[in-house]
């Protein structure tokens, strides 16, 4: 309660006045302090939520997120559209894996945002929230954070909300908005993002900077976006900022994702480009392997990386977390290899399949592919990630010892 009522004082600030500092998730190394501006964020939230996600004043907007993920800020942007935002402090899997859908039922949420990992968890558990809960108010589900395998898409439409609009969104803390996402005017296809976001000059480039259609390439943005960072915190001269986005293609923003843009402008994200697998000169996305491996009931989680060795050779191990009560033996290794070969290609079959206690992730649920790759290439764990910004930080030391044992 305000003890002494006062008149609200509105400050008149420049368009690019600093608004906040967002910290990157740490998927490619130690988090970066990203400073964004008032005007750019307001423009992006107004456009991305209102025209892209089709958020309306009558909506109740629930996003499963912590305050450390940029989608928290994205959700708060819903207030610009006059909608009601639903804040939930707790685990989405309490009291069971359908916990978040129970919150959606109770609050009559009409737009629900979540990471792909939560949808995959429900799909693997074979739950049917749409049959046991009243989710008729849900008109749209926003999915982001990582790629959702086709089986996850089908589960949403078959088991959660058959009449919903599942819109996959690709963006990042760097711009605190969507680079590619949904459109209420376009069809939905499993395993694809509908289109580049309005006003985003999105392209996939090869290593020489030529645009690709229907082929995997580096995700680039060829013209400025309003919410691109003003600068990085504690980055005098902007050297880290320039190295992060403009080093590979001078003057053009390289986002760090490996994508395919189809002729109809739909987008498929294969994973982080820094962690893209490269066997025999062919680049492959880790998401394809996860989509196969994590559908196998005996596997709870997985991580695949490609390691360039000092002698010029290439080593591609697959680390798996066995499901509760399961054990990785030769028979399960063979089952995994066979599934990968059948659904993808012989080139996708890993050089080794190794059991691990856990897969380290950022606090937003992204797998630490690049830091683990760097550790296996010889960098100390303390140089590639900050322990306070990830889950299972002890696993960085596990991979360090694994790398040392392989060199002996």
How are the secondary structure elements laid out?
Blueprint: E1 18-23, E2 33-37, H1 38-52, E3 60-63, H2 70-76, E4 84-86, H3 99-107, E5 111-115, H4 116-124, H5 129-132, E6 140-144, H6 150-160, E7 165-168, E8 170-172, E9 177-181, E10 195-196, E11 202-205, E12 216-221, E13 231-232, H7 239-245, E14 253-261, E15 267-272, E16 277-279, E17 282-284, H8 286-293, E18 299-304, E19 307-308, E20 314-315, E21 317-322, H9 330-343, E22 352-355, H10 369-376, H11 381-384, H12 394-407
Parallel strand pairs: 3-4, 3-5, 5-6, 6-7, 21-22
Antiparallel strand pairs: 1-2, 2-13, 8-9, 9-10, 11-12, 12-14, 14-15, 16-17, 18-21, 19-20
Describe the structure.
- This protein is 27% helix and 23% strand.
- The protein folds into 2 domains: 18-198 and 225-237, Rossmann fold; 273-407, GMP Synthetase, Chain A, domain 3 (2-Layer Sandwich), CATH 3.30.300.30.
- It has helices at 38-52, 70-76, 99-107, 116-124, 129-132, 150-160, 239-245, 286-293, 330-343, 369-376, 381-384, 394-407; strands spanning 18-23, 33-37, 60-63, 84-86, 111-115, 140-144, 165-168, 170-172, 177-181, 195-196, 202-205, 216-221, 231-232, 253-261, 267-272, 277-279, 282-284, 299-304, 307-308, 314-315, 317-322, 352-355.
- The chain is globular, with a radius of gyration of 22 Å.
- The relative contact order is 0.11.
- The model has no long low-confidence stretch (mean pLDDT 91).
- It has 12 helices and 22 strands.
- It has a 5-stranded parallel beta sheet with strand order 4-3-5-6-7, with helices on both faces. A 4-stranded antiparallel beta sheet has the order 11-12-14-15. Strands 1-2-13 form a 3-stranded antiparallel beta sheet.
- The chain has 408 residues and is an alpha/beta fold.
- Helix 10 (369-376) packs parallel to helix 12.
